[in-house]
Amino acid sequence: MEISLALLLVLVAISDIIHLVQAQSQPGFISLDCGLPANEPSPYSESKTGLRFSSDSKFIQTGEIGRIQTNLENPLKPYTTLRYFPEGTRNCYNLPVDKGRKYLIKAWFRYGNYDGHDIKPMFDLYIGPNLWATVDMQNLDGNSTSEEILHVPSSDSLQICLVKNEGTTPFISSLELRPLGNNSYITQFGSLKLVSRGYYTTSKNYIRYPDDAYDRLWSRLSPSSSLTYISTTSDVSDGGNYNIPKAVGQKAAIPTNASLSLLIQWTPESSNDQYYVYLHLAEIQDLQANETREFSVFLDGNRLSDPIIPKKFEITSMQSLNPRTCGGEECSLKLTRTQRSTLPPLLNAFEIYRVIQFMQPETNETEVVALKSIQDTYKLIRINWQGDPCVPQHLMWDNLTCSNTTISRPPRVTSLNLSSIGLTGTIAAAIQNLTQLEKLDLSNNNLTGEVPKFLGNITPLLFMIARFHRNLSGNDLNGSIPQSLQSKGIELLLHGNPRLCQTKSCTKPQSKDFPVVIVATAASVIILIAVLVLVFVLVFRKKNQYTAMQALQMPPNMPAVVNIENANSHEPLNEIKRRMFTYSEVIKMTNNFQNSLGKGGFGMVYHGFVNGSKQVAVKVLSQSSTQGYKEFKAEVDLLLRVHHTNLVTLVGYSYEGDHLALIYEFLTNGDLKQHLTGKRSRPIINWSSRLGIALEAALGLEYLHMGCTPPMVHRDVKTANILLDDNFKAKLADFGLSRSFQSGIGYQDSTAIAGTPGYLDPEYNHLGRLGEKSDVYSFGIVLLEMITNQPVISQTSENSHITKWVSSKLICGDIIEIMDPNLRKDYDSNSAWRAVELAMSCANPSYSKRPSMSQVINELKECIMCENSRLSNNQGLESRAINIGLDSSVVPKAR
Ligand SMILES: *[C@@H]1O[C@H](CO)[C@@H](O)[C@H](O)[C@H]1NC(C)=O
Ligand SMILES: *[C@@H]1O[C@H](CO)[C@@H](O)[C@H](O)[C@H]1NC(C)=O
Ligand SMILES: *[C@@H]1O[C@H](CO)[C@@H](O)[C@H](O)[C@H]1NC(C)=O
Ligand SMILES: *[C@@H]1O[C@H](CO)[C@@H](O)[C@H](O)[C@H]1NC(C)=O
Ligand SMILES: *[C@@H]1O[C@H](CO)[C@@H](O)[C@H](O)[C@H]1NC(C)=O
Ligand SMILES: *[C@@H]1O[C@H](CO)[C@@H](O)[C@H](O)[C@H]1NC(C)=O
Ligand SMILES: *[C@@H]1O[C@H](CO)[C@@H](O)[C@H](O)[C@H]1NC(C)=O
Ligand SMILES: *[C@@H]1O[C@H](CO)[C@@H](O)[C@H](O)[C@H]1NC(C)=O
Ligand SMILES: *[C@@H]1O[C@H](CO)[C@@H](O)[C@H](O)[C@H]1NC(C)=O
Asked: What pTM was computed for the model?
C-alpha cells in the first residue's frame, strides 16, 4: 500500500472540504496567512474551517508578498497568498510560544507560479538552529506541499527560518501552530516529523479543525483493492489522550481476504531513521457471539504489542513506547490476526513520525533577547540578524562571534563589533546580558553618556579562558571610568572621548594614547643597568666556565626586571587562550589519572599531556571534598586577576557537572622543597641560583600584593609551592587558597586559619589578621630554609622553629654555621649575611616591622649583585671569595 502520496492527494483536493463550521475557541492556535496584504482584514475567519487566520507581518520583518495564479488552482484563502524571500540567506519568523509545551507545527507551501517564472524552488526549513526539512518542490508532482512536526520549544520564542539552498527563492504560504496535550505523542527524545497521517475512507474528504480539536489533518489513504472499507454512523468516542475525531473513528478498513494481513509500507530516508507509529482503532462492526477480532502488530517481523481486541465504538490509540528502526530498505507494519481470531484485523487510522534530534543547542535565550534589544535600541538593520545569532555556524550573524559549543553548552556571544555605524544614544543596557563578551567594539560612533560599570563585569571562570577587550574610543562619552573596567585582563580603549574625565582625581583611563608610564626610582634604574651589565658579562662567559645551571639561572634577572613593569602596567593577558576541556579530554590527557604528582590545594594532581606532547599538571577536584568547590572558585577567582611569569600558568580547565579540573603548565624540575631535601637526584642548587629563585618567587608575590586589584594574599607560601621549570625559573603555585582550606597538620579545629604550620604568620595565627605581610613572613621562612636547609620545625632540636635556630646561631656571628653545608662555602659571605638579615626581618614576629615585598626584592637584588660580583671578579676562585667575606668589616648585624 502506497501512502507517501496521501498528503498530496489531500492538497490537490483541498477545496473539497465538507465541514463548514462557525469559528469557535482555538486556544493557543497561531494561524498565519503569510503574505496577506496589509489592506485586507486581519484576522479573518477562514470560511470552511472557521480557523482565524492573521497576517504574518507582525512576526517577520523581511520578505515580499506574492499571490498564486488562481486560475490554476482554487485552494483555501490562506494558501493563495505567500511571502517570499529574495534577500538574505536566512529569513525567520519569530513566534511567541509557551516554553516546554508541545506544539504541532505546520508549514504550507503552495507555489502556484506566483512569480511567473514557473521554476519550483528548493530550500531548507529550520527550527532555530536546526534543520527541520528540505522543501524540495522540484521533485514534487503537485504544486504544493507541507511539513509538520511535533516539537517542544525550549524558549518562549520559536524561530522558524527559511534558508536558501541551491539559489532558488524560499517562500511560505502559511504557518500554523497548535498546542497539544501533554499525554500524547510522548517521546524519549527528539521531535517528531510527520511522515504520514491518514484514515481509511472512500470519501475524498480530509478531516481537520474543527472536527479535530488539534487541527491534525487526516487525509484519505490511497484506495486499495485488497481492502474492504467499512463505516458506521454510530457515535465513536475517544476516551484516550489522542482526541481522535469521531469522523475518523467511524471509518475503518479490513483486509478483504480475512486470512491476509493489513499492511502499511514506507521507505526510510536512511537506515538509521527512527520512527514512532500510532495506530488508532475502534470496532465498528457488529460482532456475533461466536466471532472474535484479535490481531497482533509487527514491524519488520518484530511483534510490537500483545494481541489487540478493538473496543466497540471506542477509539484506542496504540503507541510505540520506543522509537523503532526498520531493518531493511522498506519499513513494513503488519496487522495479522491471531489464531483464535475469526475476523480479519481492522484499522481506522494511523500516524507515522520520524524522530528528528535537534542536536544543535540554541544560543542562550537571555543573550538572544539582549541582542534583539540592542538591535532595537540602535535601530540596527541587518538582513542576517535573524534566527539564531550563533548557529548554525555558516549562518552566524554579522558583526559578532560566538563560542564553540557542545551538546551540553549552548553557544554564547563572545564578541560584538558595532564600530563606525553611527550609533547614537547611550551604551545599551542590554549589553550586560551578554555575560561572556570578550570583545566589544563600539568605537567611532556617536555614543554619549557615561561608561557603564557592567562592561567590566566578568565572571571568574571566564577570565580563565579569555582575554577581554573593550573599545569605546571615538565616541562622546563623559563621566569617569568605573573601577570594574580597570581590572587586569581587560584591555580598555577610550581615547577620542573628549568629555571623558581624564584628570588625576578620576581614575586614569588606559588607552593607546596614554600608556601607563612606569616610574622607576633612580636606584632601580641603576640596578637595572647593573643587572644588564652583569647579564651580558655572564652570558658572554657562560660559554666558558659556568655550569649549565648557573648560566641558565642568570637570565631570569632580565625578565625579572621587565616583570616589575608588567606588574604595574595593564599588560593584556597571555596570548595563549586558556582552553576549556571536556572531562573525557581530561581523562585522556592524564591517561585515566595514571600518574599522580601529589596532592594539591583541593585534590589530587596528575601528570598529563595536551596535544600528545605538551606536559601539564592536572589538578582534579576530589569528589569527596566538601570544601572543594569553594576552593576551586577561590583559585579561579585569583587566576582571573593574575598573569605573571613567576606564577604558574593555567593552560585550561574543565568544568563539567561534578567534575572540576584545572590544567596547569607542568614544571619539569618539581618543587624547591624536593631540591633542598635532596629528593631530586640533581646537584644541589648553588647560592647564586638560590638567590635567583628567591627573587623570582618574591616577584610573583609582589605581583599578587601590588599588581592585582584588589591585592591578593597567597597565604600558603612555602618551599613546596615554589615550582621550578626546566631552566630552574621559579614559579609560585597553589595560590588562591580559600579561607576554608587547611593544609598540613594541627589546625583541624580552625576554619579561619589557612596555611602551613611553621610558615604561618604568628600574628595571623593569633589574631586571625590577614594581610600581605603574612606572606612576607612565610617568605622569610622560605628564605631561611634556602639559606640554612634546616627543617622549618625540627622534631629533635629544642630550638624547634627555624627562626629560633637561626637566632641561636647568629649569636656566634659565624655565617658558615648558618649556611647550608651543602653549599660547601661557595658563596659571597656579604651576600649571605644580607640574605640572612633579610630573611630574619621578613620573619619578624611583629607584622608591622616586616618589609614589603618590594623592599625584599630590592634587597635580594643587592644580594645577587654581591654574589655576582664575586663570581665575575674571581673567576671561580671560591676560596678567595669566602675569605673576603670573612674578613669583611662591613658584615651587617642580623636583626
Ligand atoms: C501546477 O502548476 C502548473 C503551472 O505552474 C500547472 O500547469 C499545473 O496544472 C499545476 N498542477 C496541479 C496539480 O495543480
Ligand atoms: C503539561 O506539563 C507541564 C509540565 O510538565 C505543565 O506545566 C502543564 O500544565 C501541563 N499542561 C497540561 C495541559 O497538562
Ligand atoms: C486468501 O489468502 C490465502 C492465503 O494467501 C489464499 O490461500 C486464499 O486463496 C485467499 N482467499 C481468497 C478468497 O482469495
Ligand atoms: C457463527 O454463528 C453463525 C450462526 O449463529 C454461523 O452462521 C456462523 O457460521 C458462525 N461463524 C463461525 C465463524 O463459526
Ligand atoms: C543564559 O545566560 C544567563 C546569563 O548568563 C544564565 O543565567 C542562564 O543560566 C543561561 N541559560 C542557559 C540555558 O544556559
Ligand atoms: C558588519 O558586517 C557587515 C556585513 O558582513 C560588514 O560589511 C561590516 O564591515 C561589519 N562591521 C564591522 C564593524 O565588523
Ligand atoms: C570553533 O570551531 C571551528 C570549527 O570547528 C574552528 O574553526 C574555530 O577555530 C573554533 N573556535 C574556537 C574559538 O575554538
Ligand atoms: C556624529 O554625528 C555628527 C553629526 O551629529 C556627524 O557629523 C558625525 O559624522 C557623527 N560621527 C560618527 C562617528 O558617526
Ligand atoms: C537581562 O536579562 C534578564 C533576564 O533574562 C532580564 O530580566 C533583564 O531585563 C535583562 N536586562 C536588560 C538590561 O536587558
From this structure: 0.63
